Amino acid sequence: MKIMHCPLNGPRNISEFTYGGQVHTMPDPKTCDDPSWARYVFYEDNDIGIVREWWQHTPSSYWFIAERHNGSDDILRTYDPGELFTDRVDFQTPGGES
Amino acid sequence: MASPLQSLAFEGGGNEALVLRDFRLARRAGVRGPGASDLLTSHGLPADIAPNRISDQSDRGLVMALSQREFWLLHPDAAASSQQPDSAALAAGAWPLYCQHSHAWLMLSGEPKAAMMAKLCGVDLGDGAFPLGQVAQTQMAHVSVVIAHHDYQNEAVFSLFVDQSLAEYAAGALIDAMSEFNQSGI
Amino acid sequence: MPVALLKYGLGDDFPFEDHADLPGPTALRDHYDVVIIGGGGHGVATAYYLAKYHGITNVAVLEKAYLGGGNTARNTAVIRSNYLTPEGVAFYSASVKLYEQLSNEFDFNIMYSQRGQLTLAHTDATVRAFRQRAEVNKHFGGRTELIDRQAIAELVPCLNLDPAELPVLAGLWHRDGATARHDAVAWGYARGATQRGVELHQLTEVTDIASDSGRVTGVVTNRGTVHCGCVVQAVAGHSAPLAKKAGIDLPLVAYPLQAMVTLPVKPFLNPLVSSSALHCYVQQTSRGEIVIGGGSDPYPLYQSRASLPLKESLIASAVDMFPFLSEMRLLRQWAGITDMTTDYSPIMGLSPLENYYLDAGWGTWGFKATPICGQTMAQLVASGGQVPELIQPFALDRFDRFQQVNEMGATAASH
Asked: What is the ipTM of this complex?
């Protein structure tokens, strides 16, 4: 079976992982217009090449980031999302406290 | 059809090469969050356990680290506690995990346990790759499992934690795999 | 070889069919009124309806490989219209009606075989969804009904009604469900189109798309540049990368979809049978092979390789449904690349470029829509951009308006 290297758990069968979509910058849901929110929700880059994606190691519920070639299926690098995201994101809804 | 869980041994195992025991009624609790390690320290427990390691604290039980922010406390000889961890009593940034409710605890012992597990699990659990004190979060017979390699009553064992709702399925798969090793005359 | 047979084969008596083959390759011209990118079923069907019903014959179909060699050849040839939404059911019902007449239309046998399609429900929630689908279908003139276990056992005596601790509760019996020879559909359309003057250029890959002030002006191919009045793109799995060449982003994700067939056996399975919970569908072809198909790969990939884990899970489900399949041998396995939308409905109609028309987002449901796509896309082109009512719900801008056409429940793994 294809092997993926989990940054926390080491090399594992690809069946232990769940794909979580491309890594995108989220627009501010309070201020962005509908088309930009639609773009964030529905659109991926769709270039054939190396893509940066969210993956989860299912048994440990650990989310990380993988750089993978979506044409050859080669996984080039996996790393903890702490490399990219350092701050906690809180969602504020109109009329709600958090 | 009888539940495979009903056939599990509770005492150590006769002439059988492999024994699977039911620890669902033993005490276990977990804590998770950025404040988890501080909470452990405040209770005099070591918090510097690397992820995927398990540390034996003798009469204080076993401390299992599933990540840098998640720890489980396991007491194989204590009865399951009716008192569940209270989130208000926990330090800020640490949340209780109701492991007794969420995960069934099975224990596998016997010399060929790693060879047997190779039938169900893709991770090498042999002593070389998976020494005493090591933990693997992986899949066994297509379902998620946490496997901890530790000593219990002077014997190296695998503790297996599977989702409660899958306990019966997992026990059935294990007993089926064990049958090859437990046939008399081999 | 007997000499008599050799003489017969080489002699004048041998019954060659006129126009059995497509016209040979010709030089690519400098200009066409319509350029259709993609020589699969949808592309040649569009060319066919343009030529036959709208008199537009200055048309080039550009195919990077060979006629019908992509997803037209890789799908499992299920034709049905038992979808969930009124928009979807109306559209696919129109396609089924065209399919029923297609052999006559072509004067060429596409081996259309209306054997009915049976979808199995294993949960109460699915039974309720089936009830809704049956009512929507009846409203649009389809023949679909909910049937019980006894009726299922009579229809498919060899089916295991209690597979894998998921007992069958009821079935959605779709009498209009059918299958056809998928290659023949592409050949029939291609023959009809080329006989009327359409040029089919195989081994002609579009490498770039030229546009000027909101209009497409031509396409660049490996055989030179072609100017054109308008472009239709119908390239299935590679829809998003192609549209990018025209500067258009499409909300698609490409997943491989795998299928397999066994060695042929005597006919025993008449309807097409699919299970909603086991993510598996099983049917017997007219050649006797058992076709087994299922869910998509678990993550996106632009590569049609076959993988062992999918093979294992598909076979496990197929054996749960039909236990004797464990005794059979697999003949071959393959994959196609499916361009999935989030609502499991296609993207058809206008694009941000004025004269660039989209026929994309065909995911795992494209073959059954081939005739109606050809017909509606031809209407769209011939009218210079008037979108036919039938495909208006599938416009690209529905995503910006958050007005999706949700066919997920009626599509996923129950083709």
From this structure: 0.91
B136 touches chain A (CB under 8 A): yes
- What the block records as the tokens of B102 is 């969420």
What is the tens place of the pLDDT at every residue in C14-51?
665 555 578 888 899 999 999 999 999 999 999 999 99
Residue C218: give the domain boundaries. 27-74+183-251+343-410
Q: Are B56 and B41 in contact (CB under 8 A)?
A: no
Q: What is the CATH number of the domain that holds C245?
A: 3.50.50.60
* pLDDT 10s digits, B111-159: 999 999 999 999 999 999 999 999 999 999 989 999 999 999 999 999 9
Residues of chain A in contact with residue C249, where contact means CB-CB under 8 angstroms, are: 39, 43, 46
**C266 plus C327 within the same structural domain:** yes
Domains along chain A with CATH numbers: 3-83 (3.30.2270.10)
Please say which residue of C296, C320, C340 terminates a domain. Answer: C340
B121 touches chain A (CB under 8 A): no
Task: Return the residue in B72, B137, B142, B162 with the most chain A beta carbons within 10 A, the one to mutate for interface testing.
Answer: B137
Q: Is B102 on the interface with A (CB under 8 A)?
A: no
**Cα three-residue angle A3-A4-A7, rounded to 5 degrees:** 145
Q: Which of A3, A4, A56, A60 to mutate to probe the B interface, most B CBs <10 Å?
A: A60
> CA B17 to CA B112: how far, in whole Å?
7
In the predicted model, is pLDDT for residue A92 greater than 90?
Answer: no
Task: Return the residue of A nearest to B162 by Cα.
Answer: A59
Contact residues for C306 (Cβ-Cβ < 8 A; gap 6+): C258, C333, C334, C335
Residue B84: the pLDDT is 62
Give chain C's domain count.
2
Last residue of a domain, one of C278, C311, C340: C340
Does the distance separating the beta carbons of A59 and B139 come in below 8 Å? yes
Residues C38 and C156 in one domain: no
| Cβ contacts of A64 on chain B, cutoff 8 Å | none
A35, A41, A70 member nearest C301 (Cβ): A70
In a domain, C198, yes or no: yes
CA pair distance C412, C405, nearest whole angstrom: 14
Q: Which residues of B touch A12 (CB under 8 A)?
A: 122-123, 138
| Contact criterion met (CB < 8 Å) for A9 and B138 | yes
Residue C79 lies in a domain: no
Q: Are strands C290-296 and C330-340 parallel, antiparallel or unpaired?
A: unpaired
CA distance B105 to B170: 11
What whole-number distance in Å separates Cα of residue C358 and Cα of residue C377?
A: 9
Contact A57 B139 (CB under 8 A): no
